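Before going further, learn to read the protein records used in this course. The integers have meaning only within a learned vocabulary of local backbone shapes. To see the layout at work, look at the sequence and tokens printed below.
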Amino acid sequence: MVRNMAYNIFVSDISAWHEVRLELPSTCAQLLEKLLIKLERKPDLLTWAIIEQNTDNWTERIVEDCEVMDDLILSKSPEASSRYCLNKILEKYSILRNPELCLPAGMLTMPNNFQLVQENGDNVQRVQLQHILTKTAAEICGFLSVRDSDRKSWKKVYCVLRNSGLYYSSKNTRKDPRYLVSIADVHTAQVWYSFSPKRQHFPDAPTDFSFCLKPKSYDNGATDQWFCAESEQLRSTWVNSLRLKMDGCRFYNSFVSAQENATSCLTRSSSERTIYRFEEDDNFAAMDFSGTRGRIIHDRLELASFKEEQRLLWKRKLHFNRIPTAASVPRNMDYGSPNRSGGWIARSMHHTMQWYFGKLSREEANEQLSKLGNVDGCFLMRDSQTIIGGVVLTLVFNRKSRHYPVALVDRHGEHFYTVDQGHTRFETLIHFVDFHRLNKGSLPCLLVHECSRKGSKN
């Protein structure tokens, strides 16, 4: 007989409860995927997470994808005041997705005689950092305020996170074994953090950015250990580093699985969703779905006719569905023939992208990104309020929204977008975004998380 269990999950963005029934045993990743499909959302396990919330002390934690949900729920006492929520957490795997953004300078101690390669680009550095974090005995170091439960006071100390546990140095920032004092065994604990804007637990806490190591079992006199970080970014770094050390290979395998699942859900990259990419070297075949069954178009004349039909279809779509704004397209600029790939149709297709908000003020753009937590790498594009025909990239870096004008330049009959006075040029804004997803160029960081007009459904 197949046993199953019903899980009641609170979906935070729509404030509604949903029930999901799964066979036993079931992992958090299986629960996440089935719930997202039920909600008709893309099963993106890189950013969606199940959150366990304790409503008594206003703390929460990320339930790891590898955790077995039935064991987790059955281990809770009946009087425990906790609930499970579906939240969009952009920083769920940020320590492995974008370690160069997640880890502040000097916080990661490199293995002996290891040097990061600087000249080969951001992707090589990212792979190197992933290798250091997952395959070596890397150390995470920095200052934290630690609460002394006996004296009921806080002390700022230099902490060192190793594979064996969390320590603090009794002598300044020295990391010799004789100076390191154990604070907690991270392998028998869970990391929780406060989700209340106020200091609910300790009014005397030095900052609002507190987190806690709770032992899985309170046997042998184990107690909670509270910490305070100097900023939200540092707290996020410590929380994610502790999660990585706690679960090790399981955390890394869950990240790899989530990446593979996200890749399999992609249809085409945004730069390829144009009407001009039916070339012979394209990996995608032109299909005709006008009949009862789809068929591949092999005939070149038929393919040319199909391309023209698609061009007219996109022209009508852009005319009726574009975001109305007077500044989005300058009237005094010659866009060339619509049949040219560099014509006005190609340069207007960003109106169909979810990261393009059209007419939006600086304050409204900041508000949109703050809804996603002001995570580094979040971005959106909007029309400029001061430059006719100009576009502005609003990007979060160091937890603050920054605004970069992207100019549409007409130089000797050539039209292109640029953010660095023409040193790098892009035919369309879609090309601009796709390039900076992989290369930061003149920007302070990569474009990682797009802020969508449709909000939570992406």
